[in-house]
Amino acid sequence: MADRVVEVSGRTDPGKVREGNEDSFAVGDLDTGDLWDGRGVASATGWRGPLLIVCDGMGGSEGGEVASEMAARTVWREMVEAQATHDPEVFARLLRRAVRAANRRIFDEARREISLRGMGTTVSAAGFAGDRLVVATIGDSRAYILRGGVLTQVSRDQSLVSALIQAGQISLDEAQSAQAHGAILQAVGVTEDVEPSLSMIDLRRGDRVLLCTDGLYNQLGEQALAAILGTRRRPDGLASALVEAARAAGGADNITAVIAEVGGELLRPPASEDDLPRFVEFEPREEGARALTSTSYVARRLAARVGIGDDPGPPVVPATGQHRAIKIKPPPQQPPPQPDLAGPARQRLASGRSLGVILWLVVAAVAAAVAWWLAGA
């Protein structure tokens, strides 16, 4: 068995109400640099593994579609060209930088093209670093892990409803019918910079990872998601089953689901029924254990901007995430010496020039000595 084997598939659908599809997703193998073509199941066994990206666009049929597609492709390109690393903290910072680079590209494009003004997108992107899953979130597209029949959300929504729930102002039942449903606190491409929420999750052998847009989880609910993900299907069958179930439940929004099943000797099996995944946010300004917290400082800062809860303080990580990692290339090999096509004539010319230089140096030295002697006299 390989150290880590990840099988991935995904599907997106416009649903039954909307004419167009503003959702986009991308799945690629960071080891080979290849994007999945959307057929069957993509399998990755390399040590970098696959990258999963799900985006839900906004800003009209044209703008939303452009923003989500541009975000998915930019995050993919930035990550495949970044340095390779086993360190989950380094990977998280690289993923954060990739999302911010996508934000800048969409923001600049919207300023250039009048018809795209106001476009934006959510982003949920996940990759593998050793035995951990690293997730970056902007907006309310989500990441889940199914383990032992239990579905756990391992991302934190940057939405108005989520902020109200975390502040204790509404209950989960009240959130289902909240008028603010669908309002997000941050989107990629709307402002000059964004602050992704980063989470890290210890993986176990047999985990199933789901990235999805709100058109899936809002339409089905988490109990239905867990029931479908727990069936004995491969990732492609699971993606199709989830999308079809959301359509059957009304399909009121665009629907996207990307599923990854994780195995291999690198990951240990769950230790017990209580060995479940949990949300742990990574704070880029810290190192080691101090960088991990069970709350989301990013979500709290965003909520405080609209008057919900207390502000934990401004972000201290400077906006320097726009620069790509430099890859050092080996020096070019020197070309082999070329044969002297001019023959003896060129050699004689070179010898003559060398002799002339030597004679000039001798004359200059003698002149200098004479000048010094005269000055001393």
Overview of the structural elements:
With 377 residues, the protein is an alpha+beta fold. The N and C termini lie far apart (94 Å). The chain is 34% helix and 21% strand. Strand 2 and strand 3 form a beta hairpin. The strands form three sheets. Strands 2, 3, 5, 6, 7, 8 and 11 form a seven-stranded antiparallel sheet that branches. The chain has a six-stranded antiparallel sheet with strand order 4-1-13-12-9-10. It has two domains: 5-305, Phosphatase 2c, domain 1; 346-377. Helix 1 packs antiparallel against helix 2 (88-112). The longest helix has 33 residues, at 344-376.
List the helices and strands and how they pair.
Blueprint (H helix, E strand, L loop, with lengths): L4 E9 L9 E7 L4 E2 L6 E3 L5 E9 L1 H21 L7 H25 L7 E2 L1 E7 L2 E7 L3 E6 L2 E4 L6 H7 L5 H5 L20 E6 L5 E5 L1 H7 L1 H8 L5 H14 L6 E9 L17 E2 L9 E2 L3 H9 L38 H33 L1
Antiparallel strand pairs: 1-4, 1-13, 2-3, 2-5, 5-6, 5-7, 7-8, 8-11, 9-10, 9-12, 12-13, 14-15
Helix pairs in contact: 1-2, 5-7
